[in-house]
Design goal:
This protein is α+β, with helices and mostly antiparallel strands. Helix content is 25%, strand content 30%.
């Protein structure tokens, strides 16, 4: 079995015509898909340009496709083009830009996972849409455990008994895997919002895709440099003359500059409080 994240590009009109996406999977049949069967019908993720589904029951050579549907399935689109397991829009961009048939899907996938791990090293995070609710039982009930996905708390809001938003409060701080609300009001519901690590492709918003692209490209160039230093012949962009080591180094500098520029933009995208009330 293999875990595959299937990425469906949302319809151009958002959810005006369609509200759901139907995902299907087929076994490989000598390099082409066999008969497709339904996997899941997911609501379109209107907050992004893509809707994701993680399939945990396929194989490394499974095929996938999807189509758009309205709520009662009376209006449907044509099926998308079939894609193999672990194909992703970013690696497809790279494959199109770097015409190198010697690089395998496993190579692109390994480099992709390395870049996702690098995102954690750079402390790039994703916004967590679901807040933790905390209803203190008394004015001394100050501590609330954080769920596993929370890495940092960014805001604490106060709501009345009807659920109406009152205001945000600065009277909190995070300590380890817990948050302390100082001076809690037992008549108030506290909504704790935070950010979490980027763990896999499904955690990426659209604006991370180009960052992932340049991160993978750096690792591709590093691979080519290593091959060059080992005196192995490798394919090059123009198919006519070999690429020199200085040219590869120049390409790497460009890729690193693009990658680091995007990393810094992501870091400026949200502010994590210092953690003191």
């Amino acid at each position: 079995m293999a875990n595959t994240l299937v990425v469906a590009v949302n319809p151009a009109d958002g959810t005006d015509t369609y509200s759901h996406i139907q995902f299907q999977r087929a076994a490989d049949n000598s390099g082409v898909p066999g008969a497709f069967s339904d996997l899941v019908r997911s609501a379109i993720d209107a907050k992004n340009e893509q809707t994701y589904y993680e399939d945990t029951g396929g194989d490394d050579d499974s095929w996938y496709r999807y189509r758009y549907e309205n709520s009662d399935e009376s209006v449907t689109s044509n099926w998308s083009e079939e894609s193999l397991a672990d194909e992703h829009v970013v690696t497809n961009w790279l494959i199109d830009d770097i015409d190198d048939s010697a690089t395998t899907t496993a190579d692109w996938t390994r480099w992709r996972d390395e870049v996702l791990a690098d995102f954690q090293t750079h402390a790039l995070m994703r916004e967590l849409e679901t807040a933790i609710s905390f209803d203190p039982s008394s004015d001394t009930d100050e501590w609330k455990d954080l769920t596993g996905e929370f890495r940092e708390v960014v805001r604490v809001d106060m709501h009345d008994s009807t659920g109406k938003y009152i205001t945000s409060t600065p009277h909190w701080y995070k300590w380890g895997r817990r948050i302390r609300i100082t001076q809690p009001d037992e008549d108030i519901t506290y909504k704790i919002y935070g950010v979490g690590n980027i763990r896999h492709l499904g955690d990426l918003d659209d604006d991370y895709f180009t960052t992932l692209y340049w991160g993978i490209r750096i690792r591709y160039i590093d691979h080519q440099i290593a091959e060059r230093l080992n005196f192995k012949y490798f394919l090059n962009a123009d198919k006519v003359s070999d690429v020199s080591l200085p040219q590869l180094e120049q390409h790497r500098q460009q890729a690193v500059a693009e990658y680091e520029k995007r990393i810094n933009l992501h870091k400026a995208g949200y502010v994590i409080p210092a953690g003191t009330p």
